Amino acid sequence: GATTPVIISYATGSYTVPSPELYVTEATGYTITPLKTSVTAGSNETFTITAVAPSGISVSWVPAFISVSPSAGVTYPEVVNASTSGYSFNVTAIKAGTYNITAAGGIGPSSLGEVSSASASWNVIPGTPTKVLVQLSTDVPGYTVDYATGAVYVTSIQVTDAYGNLETIPNGSIITLTASAGAFANGMGTWTYTVPSNVTSVTGPAFYPPAAFGSTSEISASVNITSGAYKGVYTGTSNEIITSVNVTAAPAAVLPSEV
Questions:
Q1: Strand pairing category for 174-179 and 216-217
Q2: Among 103, 107, 108, 124, which one is least packed by beta carbons within 10 Å?
Q3: Are 38 and 126 in contact (CB under 8 A)?
Q4: Distance from C-alpha of 67 to C-alpha of 83, rounded to nearest angstrom
Q5: 3-class SS at 176?
């Protein structure tokens, strides 16, 4: 790498400024390869980058400018030094999805240099489940308290990892909702559901908060995953629900003998 001064002449005088560094190399391109095709969110994916050169020629310290798409939530080095013997580095993404990584000989599409770029892709999958999300029809983004003027609907029950990625809830998993006060559409303070097929979200029942103005309630959820690598019980709670007007009481409980 070297710099060459550039002299710019103005009517008021001349100024000398450095030009961008110029790297002279016999490298003609790169190869970039992921260690794995799939990793869990928050885990390192290791890439090996190699500088490509004519047969019999070894090169080193060939700058490779790294870009990743999509880039949100991804940690990676912006530049690495490639060689014919290879160099390894880590990239970490926290959101599930497919990513593409590119190594180029310059920064930006207008300055890619004469060393041909190379790309590779890898997948990020959700990590270990950590919590259950209980979302209600009265939820407002950014708020942890809901105000009810009537029945509240459990719009979704989801299991996520530490980064908010949705997990698959396997067939046979058992979901149980428990209300601290009030009742569900079955007239009881609990609701149980067995998942019939693999899903990422389950719609729950209507919930009737306590009828008296100012009453508070909360819905707790447990998801019992009965099979697979993430077998276990995971829990979470809804926002606090405050009855903002006197509302209709919950329906009477339906006993098994009445069904």
A1: unpaired
A2: 108
A3: no
A4: 19
A5: strand
Phi, psi for residue 237 in degrees, rounded to 5: -135, 155
Start-to-end CA distance of the chain, whole Å, equals 82
Are 92 and 71 contacting, i.e. CB atoms less than 8 angstroms apart? Answer: no
Strand order from edge to edge, sheet including 87-93: 29-34, 44-52, 87-93, 74-75
CA 159 – CA 236 distance, rounded (Å) = 9
Q: What is the pLDDT along the chain (259 residues), one digit of tens a residue?
A: 444 555 556 666 655 555 555 555 678 899 999 999 999 999 999 999 999 988 888 998 899 999 999 999 999 999 999 999 999 999 999 999 999 999 998 654 444 456 889 999 999 999 999 999 999 999 999 999 999 999 999 999 999 999 999 999 999 999 999 999 999 999 999 999 999 999 999 999 999 999 889 999 999 999 999 999 999 999 999 999 999 976 666 665 554 443 3
Contact status, residue 4 vs residue 88, Cβ threshold 8 Å: no
Phi and psi of 149, rounded to 5°? -115, 10
Asked if residue 137 lies in contact with residue 60, where contact means CB atoms within 8 angstroms, the answer is no
DSSP secondary structure, 19-36, as one string: PPPB---S--EEEEEES-
Beta pairing, strands 118-125 & 38-40? parallel
Cα–Cα nearest to 156, from 178, 170, 137 = 137
